[in-house]
Amino acid sequence: xxxxxxxSPFTLVLTVIRFVxxxxxxxxxxxxxxxxxxxxxxxxACVFMPILGTTLYLMFxxxxxxxxxxxxxxxxxxRRLEIDQPSSWNRELEGQxxxxxxxxxxxxxRALVGGNSIIPLHDGDGAYPHMLDAIEKASKSxxxxxxxxxxxKVGGLFADKLVAAHKRGVQVRVLVDGIGSxxxxxxxxxxxxxxxxxxxxxxxxxxxxxxxxINLRDHRKIxxxxxxxGFLGGLNxxxxxxxxxxxxHPVSDxxxxxxxxxxxxxxxxxxxxxxxxxxxxxxxxxxxxxxxxTGESLARIVTAGPDTDLEKIxxxxxxxxxxxxxxxxxxxxxxxxxxxxxxxxxxAALRGVQVDLVIPHQSNHLPLDWACAANIAPLLNAGVRVxxxxxxxxxxxxxxxDRAWSCVGSSNLDIRSLRLNFEINMEIYDTVLAxxxxxxxxxxxxxxxxxxxxxxxxxxxxxxxxxxxxxxxxL
Length: 475
What we know:
The protein is of the alpha/beta class. It folds into three domains: 9-62; 70-75 and 115-298, 2-Layer Sandwich (Endonuclease, Chain A), CATH 3.30.870.10; 312-474, Endonuclease Chain A (Endonuclease, Chain A, 2-Layer Sandwich), CATH 3.30.870. The protein contains 17 helices and 19 strands. The chain is globular and about 90 Å long. Helix 10 (312-323) packs parallel to helix 11. The chain has a 15-stranded mixed sheet with strand order 4-3-2-5-6-8-1-9-18-16-15-10-12-13-19, with helices on both faces. A two-stranded parallel sheet has the order 7-14. This is Cardiolipin synthase. Could be a virulence factor. Keywords: Cell membrane, Lipid biosynthesis, Lipid metabolism, Membrane, Phospholipid biosynthesis, Phospholipid metabolism, Repeat, Secreted, Transferase, Transmembrane, Transmembrane helix.
């Protein structure tokens, strides 16, 4: 007797659904995914687990941030709400870094502008008084974006100044990250809202279908007052940054006070973040001012994020390393870059450029340190000098090439910052400032990391570090 080979209607319908899902999702992946490894992984998941794989892809595999950004931008060029950089300050560069200036201009759609004053400020002790003074003297507008804005003594002081400015009629807008400033409670956000200050949380939602956005963070730190004075860098707003007060877990950092035409680009970036989050447009002279020359620095803002600015800060760094002739100095709190940046640093060292990388002896995220230890050997092989900075933990993000070009801002040298986070950096063509930052980095070259240090780890530690490295994109 022949076996019954008939298929039930339910099984047939389920099979058809699975086939349609695999084909539809597979086509979408092929048309939208640039990374082949990612594409193969998603297609494999959908083939072997059609329903679960499709569900996961719909939740985590589609970059809806880019789609939203393009929808908001419409038919305008990225990052231009209603602002055109005054052409009188636009500059063209000659010499060694001319190709870099040309490339970054095309990449960022922003002009290189002259007439800027850029002052480095170290730790909260050096930066907060300048920031608070600017807020206290504000007469028109305040734009503040911060990844971490804690409701502690320092945060409370900033909050009081912001509320006071709001009450005297200043247009205040505060944007905090939906994760960094507290996913569930975010007390500072509620404190400002109760006082009537317009405050929003970036990419924050408790709705299950919006949960994928929690991996996308606004890591930018921006303050623009009256469209005239700007601040940016790595500094969050919290007690831990007041190093002189000896907090339990001190965090050193470097921030920058900026005056001049480049502040307009900084204000534009802050206004875009606010618009992206709230769909409120910020208009006119309240936020965007004409500027006079305040210094000699040539500068330009470079933004990056998983929207219309994907990987632009990394491309800027790669091109700068390519043009290096003598030395490249980098200082970063976390070092877990992708293969492109690793290869470029190694190639620079092999062609005779002195490459110095300064990282903390111990950061405030141990899994990142573990993964870094498992990932850094190829740079040592190429001749890159890796240095461990003594405590306190230094959160500065600095890059200097040939003591002439600098890149500063919020971006760490890890995959999260370079691909997933919304970041803001400033490239600066100023030899005096570059030499100052180069000396600052050099001062923190305390202990050189060697092959012996890596090989001397016991096997259990090596396995732990190698396992942590598997999670590089998410650390």
